[in-house]
Design a protein that fits this description.
1 helix; elongated; alpha+beta; 60 residues
């Protein structure tokens, strides 16, 4: 499963709970994007979550 290379965010697990309180397993995936970023003067493909990409864009 994909994980953010910057913050380590990955999938989270839990239960869906219906009206009858029946529990079924469920997985929530992080919004992972594959972007080309300049790291140490070189272009590098990075798997990063949308929140990290927003933070990079804000601080640039």
């Amino acid at each position: 499963m994909a994980m953010c290379e910057m913050c380590g965010k990955g999938p989270q697990f839990g239960n869906r709970v219906s009206f009858s309180a029946r529990h079924t397993r469920h997985m929530w995936r992080a919004n992972i994007q594959r972007k080309t970023l300049v790291v140490d003067g070189r272009s590098r493909r990075v798997y990063a979550c949308a929140k990290c990409l927003k933070t990079l864009q804000k601080n640039a």
